[in-house]
Design goal:
Number of helices: 9
Strand content: 5-15%
CATH superfamily: NAD(P)-binding Rossmann-like Domain
CATH class: Alpha Beta
Largest sheet: 7 strands, parallel
Distance between the termini: 33 Å
Strand order of the largest sheet: 3-2-1-4-5-6-7
Order of helices and strands: HEHEHEHEHHEHEHHE
Radius of gyration: 19 Å
């Protein structure tokens, strides 16, 4: 069984690799034996994390800066990776932006659907959908030509169900924030895109699946953590490391007969 999960001699690109889950995705793939390409907007930081990853896993990762919303940048990334390794076996489309407001005091009003800024809506579309499209089209084409590869798109439970806005309420009943329409919409699109690409490239040996994580504990307000945990059958939020096994499964031959699927790892959040 260990051979099925091995990624030895595989080359894996992880976008959004400097984020909370992105770093854990890189560690998971490297620990399974892959040569990991760490890519995010900050090239110097990518190089620094690649060195950290190398020291921890004794593999040969590299860091390359890039902007997934720009096709030319994605093409440059592909060319650099292919020139070095002469193959690309795994693509993890992890890069995404979530709701962020410059003024937290105004977030309750600004995050309402009726007031949500078109600029934030468009930015989410550009990164979460168009960026995933560019990376899949440009990098996935290499996989289709070589006749094998695994693309893992990182989705979200909010791509499956509507946000529970009560999670973001304060103990006094006032609303500190509303989950915006942008993130759920884009993550739902990622799941649909996964099914499209899986059937399109199936005969070329490229498998395409989605990993659908639940909420990750990351210093949120204690009230939010309690609310989220109470709504989750397993009684807690995820830890950043909780998705490592699922990612390696989807990237490796352990899931060789799996494509077009959405693997939900959410502590049971969507089970009720």
């Amino acid at each position: 069984m260990s051979g099925l999960f091995s990624l030895k001699n595989k080359v894996a690109i992880v976008t959004g690799a400097l984020g909370l889950l992105g770093k854990q995705h890189c560690f998971a793939l490297a620990e399974a034996g892959a040569s990991v390409v760490v890519t995010d907007l900050n090239g110097k930081a990518c190089e620094g994390f690649a060195r950290e990853l190398k020291d921890a896993t004794l593999t040969e990762p590299i860091g390359i800066g890039g902007d997934i919303t720009q096709r030319a940048s994605v093409e440059a990334l592909r060319d650099l990776v292919y020139e070095r390794y002469r193959a690309i076996d795994i693509l993890v489309n992890n890069a995404a932006i979530n709701d962020a407001f410059e003024n937290p005091a105004a977030a309750a009003e600004q995050s309402k659907f009726e007031n949500f800024p078109i600029e934030l809506w468009q930015k989410s579309l550009d990164v979460n959908i168009t960026g995933t499209f560019f990376c899949s089209q440009v990098i996935g084409r290499v996989m289709a030509i070589q006749g094998h590869g695994s693309i893992v798109n990182i989705a979200s439970t909010y791509g499956l169900v509507g946000p529970d806005q009560s999670l973001y309420s304060k103990p006094d009943g006032t609303q500190s924030f509303y989950k915006s329409p942008a993130y759920p919409t884009t993550k739902g699109a990622v799941i649909a895109f996964t099914r499209y690409l899986a059937t399109y490239w199936a005969k070329r040996g490229v498998r395409v699946n989605a990993l659908c994580p639940g909420g990750v504990e990351n210093g949120q307000d204690e009230n939010f953590i309690q609310n989220y945990s109470a709504r989750t059958p397993l009684g807690r939020m995820a830890q950043p490391t909780d998705y490592k096994g699922a990612l390696v499964f989807l990237a490796s031959d352990a899931s060789a007969y799996m494509t077009g699927a959405n693997l939900v790892v959410d502590g049971g959040w969507t089970a009720w």
